[in-house]
Amino acid sequence: MGQDYTITVKGPFDMKADRGSLEVSLAQTGASPNGAVLDEVFHGNTVYFRMPEEMNGDTGWRSASRDEAEVHALLRAPLNDPEFVLRQVSMAHSLTAAGEEKVNGVPARHYTGKLDHKPLALRMVKERREQVEEAMAMIGDELPATADVWVTEDGLITRVLLVCDLAGMKMSSTMNLTDAGKPVTVASPPDSAQAVPAASAGGALLG
Protein backbone atom coordinates (compact mmCIF):
# COMPACT_ATOMS: atom_id res chain seq x y z
CA MET A 1 0.00 0.00 0.00
CA GLY A 2 1.46 3.34 -1.06
CA GLN A 3 1.75 6.53 0.91
CA ASP A 4 0.30 9.93 0.02
CA TYR A 5 2.45 13.02 0.45
CA THR A 6 1.44 16.66 0.11
CA ILE A 7 3.89 19.49 -0.52
CA THR A 8 2.48 22.97 0.13
CA VAL A 9 4.16 26.12 -1.19
CA LYS A 10 2.73 29.51 -0.29
CA GLY A 11 3.74 33.13 -0.01
CA PRO A 12 3.87 36.51 -1.79
CA PHE A 13 5.54 36.73 -5.19
CA ASP A 14 6.15 39.70 -7.50
CA MET A 15 6.78 38.11 -10.90
CA LYS A 16 7.49 41.41 -12.61
CA ALA A 17 10.28 42.20 -10.16
CA ASP A 18 11.39 38.54 -9.84
CA ARG A 19 11.12 38.62 -6.06
CA GLY A 20 9.24 36.43 -3.65
CA SER A 21 9.12 34.83 -0.20
CA LEU A 22 7.88 31.25 0.01
CA GLU A 23 7.31 28.75 2.78
CA VAL A 24 7.42 25.09 1.77
CA SER A 25 6.06 22.29 3.93
CA LEU A 26 5.82 18.52 3.56
CA ALA A 27 3.14 16.37 5.15
CA GLN A 28 2.32 12.67 4.95
CA THR A 29 -1.27 11.46 5.09
CA GLY A 30 -2.09 10.19 8.56
CA ALA A 31 1.09 11.61 10.09
CA SER A 32 1.60 14.59 12.38
CA PRO A 33 0.83 17.92 10.66
CA ASN A 34 4.16 19.32 11.82
CA GLY A 35 6.24 18.13 8.88
CA ALA A 36 9.45 19.50 7.44
CA VAL A 37 9.51 23.20 6.55
CA LEU A 38 11.71 25.19 4.17
CA ASP A 39 12.00 28.99 3.80
CA GLU A 40 12.84 30.51 0.41
CA VAL A 41 13.62 34.02 -0.81
CA PHE A 42 13.68 34.73 -4.56
CA HIS A 43 15.74 37.72 -5.60
CA GLY A 44 16.39 38.07 -9.32
CA ASN A 45 18.27 35.02 -10.51
CA THR A 46 19.26 33.88 -7.01
CA VAL A 47 17.16 31.75 -4.69
CA TYR A 48 18.02 31.64 -0.99
CA PHE A 49 16.76 28.78 1.16
CA ARG A 50 17.09 27.28 4.62
CA MET A 51 15.54 24.74 6.95
CA PRO A 52 14.48 26.64 10.11
CA GLU A 53 14.75 23.38 12.05
CA GLU A 54 17.56 21.01 11.06
CA MET A 55 18.31 17.80 12.93
CA ASN A 56 22.04 18.56 12.76
CA GLY A 57 21.50 22.12 14.01
CA ASP A 58 22.60 23.76 10.75
CA THR A 59 19.91 26.35 9.96
CA GLY A 60 22.11 28.57 7.81
CA TRP A 61 21.00 30.01 4.49
CA ARG A 62 22.10 28.51 1.17
CA SER A 63 21.79 30.04 -2.30
CA ALA A 64 21.53 28.67 -5.83
CA SER A 65 21.13 29.99 -9.36
CA ARG A 66 17.48 30.08 -10.34
CA ASP A 67 17.91 29.50 -14.07
CA GLU A 68 20.40 26.65 -13.59
CA ALA A 69 18.42 24.66 -11.03
CA GLU A 70 17.14 21.27 -12.19
CA VAL A 71 14.03 19.21 -11.52
CA HIS A 72 14.44 16.08 -9.37
CA ALA A 73 10.87 14.73 -9.45
CA LEU A 74 7.95 14.65 -11.86
CA LEU A 75 5.59 17.67 -11.67
CA ARG A 76 7.93 19.55 -9.35
CA ALA A 77 9.36 22.96 -10.13
CA PRO A 78 13.08 23.58 -9.57
CA LEU A 79 13.45 25.50 -6.30
CA ASN A 80 9.62 25.75 -6.30
CA ASP A 81 9.78 28.44 -8.98
CA PRO A 82 6.17 29.46 -9.86
CA GLU A 83 7.23 30.83 -13.25
CA PHE A 84 8.45 27.35 -14.19
CA VAL A 85 4.91 25.99 -13.71
CA LEU A 86 3.57 28.67 -16.04
CA ARG A 87 6.16 27.67 -18.62
CA GLN A 88 5.11 24.02 -18.37
CA VAL A 89 1.41 24.77 -18.85
CA SER A 90 2.22 27.04 -21.80
CA MET A 91 3.58 23.90 -23.54
CA ALA A 92 0.28 22.02 -23.27
CA HIS A 93 -1.40 21.00 -26.53
CA SER A 94 -4.85 19.96 -27.74
CA LEU A 95 -6.45 22.63 -25.55
CA THR A 96 -10.24 22.76 -25.39
CA ALA A 97 -12.66 25.00 -23.52
CA ALA A 98 -14.20 23.34 -20.47
CA GLY A 99 -16.71 25.96 -19.40
CA GLU A 100 -16.73 28.83 -16.94
CA GLU A 101 -16.65 28.75 -13.15
CA LYS A 102 -15.63 30.80 -10.16
CA VAL A 103 -12.06 30.14 -9.02
CA ASN A 104 -10.33 31.90 -6.12
CA GLY A 105 -13.39 34.12 -5.83
CA VAL A 106 -13.43 35.39 -9.42
CA PRO A 107 -15.14 34.20 -12.64
CA ALA A 108 -12.73 32.28 -14.87
CA ARG A 109 -12.69 30.37 -18.15
CA HIS A 110 -11.48 26.78 -17.81
CA TYR A 111 -9.28 25.18 -20.48
CA THR A 112 -7.95 21.63 -20.47
CA GLY A 113 -5.19 20.07 -22.55
CA LYS A 114 -2.49 17.43 -22.64
CA LEU A 115 1.17 17.34 -21.69
CA ASP A 116 3.74 15.39 -23.65
CA HIS A 117 7.32 14.37 -22.94
CA LYS A 118 8.91 17.82 -23.40
CA PRO A 119 7.17 19.76 -20.59
CA LEU A 120 7.20 16.74 -18.25
CA ALA A 121 10.98 16.30 -18.57
CA LEU A 122 11.78 20.01 -18.77
CA ARG A 123 15.09 20.71 -16.95
CA MET A 124 14.97 17.34 -15.22
CA VAL A 125 18.21 15.83 -13.91
CA LYS A 126 19.66 13.20 -16.23
CA GLU A 127 19.15 10.15 -13.98
CA ARG A 128 15.54 10.96 -13.19
CA ARG A 129 14.79 11.91 -16.80
CA GLU A 130 16.02 8.52 -18.00
CA GLN A 131 13.73 6.77 -15.51
CA VAL A 132 10.75 8.82 -16.67
CA GLU A 133 11.57 8.20 -20.33
CA GLU A 134 11.78 4.45 -19.68
CA ALA A 135 8.31 4.50 -18.11
CA MET A 136 7.00 6.61 -20.99
CA ALA A 137 8.37 4.15 -23.53
CA MET A 138 6.34 1.36 -21.91
CA ILE A 139 3.15 3.42 -22.18
CA GLY A 140 3.53 4.68 -25.74
CA ASP A 141 2.85 8.00 -27.37
CA GLU A 142 -0.32 8.89 -25.49
CA LEU A 143 0.87 9.94 -22.05
CA PRO A 144 -1.54 10.03 -19.10
CA ALA A 145 -0.72 13.66 -18.34
CA THR A 146 -3.06 16.64 -18.47
CA ALA A 147 -2.90 20.38 -17.92
CA ASP A 148 -5.81 22.56 -16.83
CA VAL A 149 -5.73 26.34 -16.62
CA TRP A 150 -8.28 28.87 -15.43
CA VAL A 151 -8.12 32.38 -16.92
CA THR A 152 -9.95 35.43 -15.57
CA GLU A 153 -11.91 37.95 -17.63
CA ASP A 154 -8.79 40.16 -17.52
CA GLY A 155 -6.74 37.41 -19.17
CA LEU A 156 -4.84 36.50 -16.01
CA ILE A 157 -4.16 32.93 -14.94
CA THR A 158 -5.72 32.25 -11.54
CA ARG A 159 -5.17 28.47 -11.29
CA VAL A 160 -3.04 25.77 -12.93
CA LEU A 161 -3.54 22.04 -12.42
CA LEU A 162 -1.08 19.46 -13.77
CA VAL A 163 -1.81 15.74 -13.37
CA CYS A 164 0.17 12.64 -14.36
CA ASP A 165 -0.45 8.97 -13.64
CA LEU A 166 2.76 7.28 -14.70
CA ALA A 167 3.41 3.59 -14.04
CA GLY A 168 0.74 3.50 -11.35
CA MET A 169 2.11 6.49 -9.44
CA LYS A 170 -0.29 9.44 -9.57
CA MET A 171 1.00 12.96 -9.08
CA SER A 172 -0.73 16.32 -9.29
CA SER A 173 0.37 19.92 -8.90
CA THR A 174 -2.00 22.82 -8.27
CA MET A 175 -0.92 26.46 -8.32
CA ASN A 176 -3.31 29.22 -7.28
CA LEU A 177 -2.51 32.83 -8.17
CA THR A 178 -4.50 35.39 -6.19
CA ASP A 179 -4.54 39.15 -5.49
CA ALA A 180 -3.03 40.02 -8.88
CA GLY A 181 -1.72 43.57 -9.03
CA LYS A 182 -1.74 44.11 -5.27
CA PRO A 183 1.52 45.19 -3.57
CA VAL A 184 3.36 42.42 -1.76
CA THR A 185 5.95 42.48 0.99
CA VAL A 186 8.95 40.29 0.23
CA ALA A 187 11.79 39.39 2.57
CA SER A 188 15.22 40.83 1.84
CA PRO A 189 18.02 38.51 0.70
CA PRO A 190 19.88 37.07 3.69
CA ASP A 191 23.51 38.03 4.20
CA SER A 192 26.39 35.60 3.78
CA ALA A 193 24.39 32.72 2.32
CA GLN A 194 26.52 29.73 1.30
CA ALA A 195 26.31 29.14 -2.46
CA VAL A 196 25.67 25.56 -3.57
CA PRO A 197 25.74 24.00 -7.07
CA ALA A 198 22.31 24.52 -8.64
CA ALA A 199 22.14 20.89 -9.79
CA SER A 200 22.48 19.67 -6.20
CA ALA A 201 19.61 21.82 -4.92
CA GLY A 202 17.05 19.04 -4.80
CA GLY A 203 15.07 16.89 -2.42
CA ALA A 204 11.40 16.71 -1.49
CA LEU A 205 11.16 20.37 -0.46
CA LEU A 206 13.30 21.94 -3.20
CA GLY A 207 11.89 20.10 -6.22
Structure description:
The protein is mainly β and 207 residues long. Helix content is 13%, strand content 40%. A hairpin with a 2-residue loop joins strand 7 and strand 8 (106-114). The radius of gyration is 18 Å and the shape is globular. The model has no long low-confidence stretch (mean pLDDT 89).
Topology:
Elements: E1 5-10, E2 13-14, E3 19-28, E4 37-43, E5 46-50, E6 62-65, H1 82-90, E7 93-103, E8 106-114, H2 117-120, H3 126-139, E9 145-152, E10 157-166, E11 169-176, E12 194-195
Parallel strand pairs: 6-12
Antiparallel strand pairs: 1-3, 2-3, 3-4, 4-5, 5-6, 7-8, 8-9, 9-10, 10-11
What share of the residues lie within helices?
Answer: 10-25%
Describe the sheet with the most strands: 7 strands, mixed
Radius of gyration: 18 Å
Q: Let me know the number of strands.
A: 12
Summed up, the helix count is: 3
How confident is the prediction overall: mean pLDDT? 89
Between the first and last Cα atoms, what is the distance in angstroms? Answer: 24 Å
The residue ranges in which pLDDT falls below 50 over 5 or more consecutive positions are none
Query: What best-fitting shape do the alpha-carbon axes yield?
Result: globular
Share of β-strand residues:
35-45%
Structural class: mainly beta
Kindly report the oligomeric state of this protein: single chain
Order of helices and strands: EEEEEEHEEHHEEEE
